[in-house]
Amino acid sequence: MCDQFVEALLRVDEQAALQILLGDHREDYSFEEIVATITSSLELIGKGFEEGTVALSQVYMSGRICEKLAEELKPQQQKNMLNGSAIAIATLIDQHALGKRIITSVLRAAGYPPIDLGHGLSADEIISKTIEHRINILLISTLMYSTAIEVKYLTERLRELSPDTIIIVGGAPFRLDTTLWQEVGADYDGRNGMDISSLIKRLIEGGCAA
Q: pLDDT tens for residues 87-142?
């Protein structure tokens, strides 16, 4: 399915992409499987861009289509499950906000709506906003390895100013290097939307994010 979905995205054929996602399960599709397909497909397209086989315009349009489909197909909004906790998401330095948008859609659907702090933010800007909003769980998305390294400064500074804030990192650099999240001092590594949703559920229900 993934290869066909990628082909539809590169053709900018939204209807074909939708039909491939739903297949024969239009009435009882699995949102988890849809998120997995979207995530894997966008990773393949991103790799194609790095190798010079996919144009930047195709990357952009693929992301827009996936964002729209994820929003349309997500389950009916559940009741708010935050139990008083505050969750926020931000993209450090990078202007590419696709990953953040997909994660936000998944969390909203699961009943854990995050505060969107924005993208292209410096570490100090994220720290300031985290303290301002009294964030219990902070999700940081990065696209480039050089950006991911900057998370180390953010975590060290935030430990001083807001030591109880739980930091979860995600993005391509952390998928490629499975120990990088520990090197930059994060609390957890989030590989995709469903993993992060399950992790947040455990943290909140366990009282770790109160």
A: 999 999 987 777 787 788 778 777 788 999 999 999 999 999 999 999 999 999 98
The distance of Cα 150 from the centroid of its chain, to the nearest Å, equals: 18
Q: What is the DSSP letter of 80?
A: P
Q: Give the global pTM.
A: 0.73
**Which are the contacts of 58, defined by CB distance < 8 A and separation ≥ 6?**
9, 10, 12, 45, 49
Instruction: Give 112-142 as a 3 state SS string.
Output: CCCEEEEEEECHHHHHHHHHHCCCCEEEEEE
Q: How confident is the model at residue 158 (pLDDT cuts 50, 70, 90)?
A: very high
Instruction: Tally helices (H) and strands (E) across the chain.
Output: 10, 5
Which backbone phi and psi does 118 adopt, to 5 degrees?
Answer: 120, 180
d(CA 143, CA 193): 16
In angstroms, the Cα distances linking 106 to 36, 40, 132, 160 are: 11, 15, 25, 31
Distance CA 48, CA 113 (A): 32
